[in-house]
């Protein structure tokens, strides 16, 4: 049956038993990724886990990293880590999450710059020294430099956080684009297979109809040929008189009657042939009509099923896009909260660093070289 052959494929990237991360890994990963992001990463992992074993090779990991935008030193570090944890050249989804989570932790640029902190310390100690010595104008200039450098460092760290967040959103978008491309490719392949199978069914039915029609024509022809002719009473009477005259040895009259009977028989045979041809054509047309109705029913079922597939594809596409939009929205919301906290922490840490420098400067004189 068509409905049994053309089953709708599954394209939902849901949890699979072989790829379910352990709770420990999940707890660690959620410090970096949301559940929606983990679900998206699981979907990407599943694309390369073609045999549903729960593993991908380190070579496939390179392709995954390239797909999600990990390159350069970041990708090299992840691949080095993969070589260490790989079992027979393969890693699990747990390993994959842990490697990505570790790679995110090692992203440089967000922490305070030690050189800037050292310079701030020197400037703050110099400011305190000038203040203690009563050189207030110089202390004011040093304080202005401290504030300028502090604001620059604060903006630099904020910019690094924003850059990292943009990179995160880009990676998610790349993953979504890849997912959408694979979704369309899978559906295109499925619809192509469906159309090819439909063409095969139509071809098979057409060939079967041709064979059945030939069998029907032969059977009908045989039936009409074997059926004895039904002559008129007039012709039968002429034949009866012909035979009587022949038995009476009145051959001359018998020959005359035979000519009359033969002429009448030819006329009636022609009429019967015309009638048989009309009956044959009518029955053949009826048989062809039945076959055409059967073919139209098949075409209707194929078209209806195809429309169902297209409708399901559109529905799945909307769900996929909405799910991806939700992931993006959750990520942006998470990043907004993170930015508020991180920016406050940056300011607090810099102020604390300056306060510590002031305390140390009050305890000891500024060293000069």
From TrEMBL:
PROSITE patterns: EF_HAND_1 (PS00018), EF_HAND_2 (PS50222). InterPro entries: EF-hand-dom_pair (IPR011992), EF_Hand_1_Ca_BS (IPR018247), EF_hand_dom (IPR002048). It comes from Triparma laevis f. inornata. SUPFAM superfamilies: EF-hand (SSF47473). GO terms for molecular function: calcium ion binding. It comes from the Eukaryota. Residues 36-71 form the EF-hand domain. This is EF-hand domain-containing protein. Keywords: Calcium.
């Amino acid at each position: 049956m068509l409905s049994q052959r053309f089953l709708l494929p599954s394209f939902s990237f849901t949890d699979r038993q072989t790829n379910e991360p352990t709770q420990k890994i999940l707890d660690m990963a959620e410090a970096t990724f949301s559940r929606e992001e983990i679900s998206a990463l699981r979907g990407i992992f599943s694309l390369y886990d073609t045999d549903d074993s729960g593993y991908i090779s380190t070579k496939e990991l390179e392709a995954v990293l390239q797909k999600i935008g990990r390159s350069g030193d970041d990708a090299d570090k992840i691949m080095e880590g993969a070589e260490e944890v790989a079992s027979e050249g393969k890693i699990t989804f747990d390993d994959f999450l842990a490697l990505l989570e570790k790679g995110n932790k090692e992203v440089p640029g967000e922490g305070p710059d030690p050189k800037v902190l050292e310079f701030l310390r020197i400037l703050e100690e110099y400011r305190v020294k000038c203040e203690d010595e009563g050189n207030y104008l110089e202390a004011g200039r040093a304080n202005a430099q401290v504030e300028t450098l502090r604001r620059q460092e604060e903006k630099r760290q904020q910019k690094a956080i924003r850059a990292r967040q943009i990179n995160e959103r880009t990676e998610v978008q790349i993953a979504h684009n890849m997912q959408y491309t694979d979704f369309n490719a899978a559906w295109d392949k499925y619809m192509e297979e469906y159309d090819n199978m439909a063409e095969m069914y139509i071809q098979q039915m057409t060939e079967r109809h041709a064979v059945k029609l030939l069998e029907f024509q032969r059977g009908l022809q045989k039936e009409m040929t074997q059926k004895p002719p039904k002559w008129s009473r007039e012709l039968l009477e002429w034949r009866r008189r012909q035979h009587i005259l022949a038995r009476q040895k009145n051959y001359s009259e018998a020959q005359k009657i035979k000519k009359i009977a033969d002429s009448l028989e030819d006329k009636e045979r022609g009429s019967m042939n015309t009638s048989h041809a009309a009956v044959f054509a009518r029955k053949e047309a009826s048989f062809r009509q039945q076959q055409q109705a059967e073919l139209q029913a098949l075409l209707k079922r194929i078209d209806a099923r195809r429309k169902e597939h297209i409708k399901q594809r559109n529905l799945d596409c909307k769900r996929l896009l909405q799910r991806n939009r939700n992931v993006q929205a959750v990520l942006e919301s998470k990043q907004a909260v993170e930015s508020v906290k991180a920016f406050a922490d940056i300011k607090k840490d810099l102020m604390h660093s300056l306060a510590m420098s002031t305390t140390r400067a009050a305890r000891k004189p500024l060293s000069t070289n």
